[in-house]
């Protein structure tokens, strides 16, 4: 519902829209003529670059072809070109940009005679949805591809894609219903890559439904075919599935396949595959080996994120520059018509400027009032939550321990040695609990001793059952970081470790600190039981963590899954 103060501005906004519409007294039309030879030349150049993996330059020429192509008169070139552009963006992890590109082609599918172009469009769109975990739409567009009048092997490929989406959606028995009939198809058996992938997927499904004998049989058949074709991508997939198969029953064999998978994916620099293999290796490593692989994983994640962001920016810039160039050409052609309206528009612009300034000032005042009120409410709420949490700890934990100790003293003979020892043990537990509550709420020192204090707090959570590793803490220039951010970092790390000890059942915890020119990066990882991020509820500890980070303009990203550990990435601006 729109607040009353905002509703007051609606008549003014409507007036502005009417005023702008009155300016359109004249319009400039342009006959869109497709320059077919030029479009074909640009596409040919782009295809050559695409085949040679020069994607940035290929994207530029495809984009040039799009601006010269008429989608109604030449829909096949228009759709196929947009499809290639979407594939390039998809390859570089720009899924939002890929979807925006490919959906431009959908309105023109009705003009296409060769349905192969529509099939390619649907498959690319389904792959994009699969990569962004939208399995329902991934299946939907493969079903659309099945309905098209295309060759038999393309229908088989669409069926296989539906099965892959079902695997990702953890519907393994439904996936088997699709995969098993494909196993005997002559076209599938002839295509070694397709056939080995199918066998591996069947083996994975049987593994997920706990039919180990069939799972191992299909996985071994798949790897035999892939070893013949020497396909690093396929071998990497097979090895990582075998590692999952042996992980619980034969850790040594599992570790061997993890390393082989990482090696094969490294040959083709398949980043997602390398990260998946490294994640399993880290989970099954200890001591210095764990540290080395953890550092490799963190560095790979950082470099991948940076590379993908640069690619997104590059593709956006190419689109923007082409659009701007086209708009400038249109402006030059329309310059004469615009001059006739210039004086009248200038008067209206002045009026509109005054109205916009008045609106802006009002909105700023409203926003200031809202943010101030919100900040005051958050302060009161934070104080109340802190008091409630301390009270709950005192009542639920400390008071119960004291009550049981008092009952023990009243009912036991303290002259006996074992009873006195039990009493001392209870008193020690009460002392430790009191000390923990005190540490959680004590004043934090932010002077030159801050690093020592932070290390002591972190090491305090290390027990005989919990191995805690921290890296990079001394590499940060803490003197240049504000007091508020130091306190926030301390409390956030403390809250994460408290949650870990209470709920996660973790045996290994890693905390990595890293500084860039503008940010502090903190990576927290544990091998606990994890949580389902789709069902995560931000309350108590996790709410405090998120709220603290957002208050200092930072960002937080939580990654977890049932029995997959718990990972938190925090970025705090300097």
How would you characterize the overall build of this protein?
This protein has 574 residues and is of the alpha+beta class. It is built from 23 helices and five strands. Among the domains are: 231-300; 378-440; 443-573, 2-Layer Sandwich (Heat Shock Protein 90). It has helices at residues 4-7, 10-22, 36-51, 55-68, 75-91, 95-102, 115-131, 135-147, 152-168, 172-182, 186-190, 192-208, 212-229, 232-246, 251-267, 271-283, 287-333, 335-340, 342-411, 417-441, 450-459, 483-504, 540-551; strands at residues 467-471, 508-515, 519-526, 555-560, 566-573. A five-stranded mixed sheet has the order 1-2-3-5-4, with helices on one face. Mean pLDDT is 81; it is low at 1-33.
């Amino acid at each position: 519902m729109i607040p009353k103060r905002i509703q007051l501005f609606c008549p003014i906004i409507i007036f502005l829209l009417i005023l702008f519409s009155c300016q359109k007294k004249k319009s400039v039309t342009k006959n869109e003529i497709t320059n077919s030879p030029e479009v074909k030349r640009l596409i040919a150049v782009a295809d050559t670059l695409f085949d040679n993996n020069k994607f940035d330059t290929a994207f530029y020429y495809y984009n040039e072809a799009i601006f010269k192509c008429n989608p109604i008169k030449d829909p096949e070139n228009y759709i196929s070109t947009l499809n290639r552009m979407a594939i390039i963006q998809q390859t570089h992890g720009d899924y939002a940009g890929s979807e925006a590109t490919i959906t431009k082609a959908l309105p023109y599918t009705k003009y296409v005679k060769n349905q192969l172009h529509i099939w390619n469009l649907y498959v690319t769109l389904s792959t994009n949805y699969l990569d962004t975990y939208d399995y329902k739409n991934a299946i939907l567009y493969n079903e659309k591809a099945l309905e098209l009048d295309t060759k038999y092997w393309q229908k088989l490929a669409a069926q296989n894609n539906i099965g892959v989406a079902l695997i990702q959606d953890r519907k393994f028995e439904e996936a088997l219903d699709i995969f098993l009939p494909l196993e005997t198809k002559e076209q599938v058996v002839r295509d070694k890559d397709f056939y080995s992938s199918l066998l591996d997927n069947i083996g994975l499904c049987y593994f997920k439904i706990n039919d180990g004998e069939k799972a191992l049989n299909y996985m071994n058949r798949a790897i035999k075919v892939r070893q013949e074709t020497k396909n690093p991508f396929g071998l990497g997939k097979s090895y990582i599935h075998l590692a999952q198969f042996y992980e619980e029953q034969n850790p040594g064999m599992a570790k061997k396949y993890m390393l082989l998978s990482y090696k094969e994916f490294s040959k083709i620099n398949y980043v997602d595959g390398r990260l998946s293999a490294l994640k399993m290796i880290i989970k099954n490593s200890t001591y210095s080996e764990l540290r080395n692989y953890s550092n490799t994983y963190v560095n790979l994640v950082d470099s991948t994120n940076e590379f993908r962001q640069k690619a997104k920016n590059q593709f956006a810039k190419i689109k923007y520059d082409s659009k701007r160039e086209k708009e400038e050409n249109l402006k030059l052609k329309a310059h004469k018509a615009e001059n006739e309206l210039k004086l009248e528009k200038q008067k209206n612009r002045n009026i509109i400027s005054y109205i916009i300034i008045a609106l802006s000032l009002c909105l700023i005042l409203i926003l200031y009032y809202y943010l101030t009120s919100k900040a005051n409410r958050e302060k009161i709420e934070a104080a109340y939550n802190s008091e409630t949490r301390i009270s709950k700890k005192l009542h639920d934990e400390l008071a119960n321990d004291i009550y049981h100790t008092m009952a023990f003293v009243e009912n036991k003979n303290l002259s006996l040695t074992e009873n006195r020892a039990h009493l001392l043990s209870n008193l020690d537990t009460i002392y430790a609990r009191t000390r923990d509550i005190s540490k959680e709420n004590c004043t934090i020192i932010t002077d030159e001793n801050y690093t020592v204090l932070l290390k002591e707090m972190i090491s305090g959570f290390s027990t005989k059952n919990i191995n805690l590793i921290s890296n990079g803490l001394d590499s940060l220039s803490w003197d240049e970081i504000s007091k508020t951010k130091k306190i926030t970092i301390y409390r956030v790390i403390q809250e994460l470790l408290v949650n870990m000890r209470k709920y996660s059942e973790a045996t290994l915890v890693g905390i990595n600190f890293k500084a860039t020119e503008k940010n502090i990066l903190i990576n927290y990882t544990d091998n606990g039981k994890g949580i389902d991020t789709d069902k995560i509820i931000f309350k108590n500890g996790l709410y405090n963590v998120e709220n603290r980070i957002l208050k200092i303009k930072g960002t937080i990203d939580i990654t977890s899954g049932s029995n997959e550990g718990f990972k938190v990435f925090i970025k705090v601006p300097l």
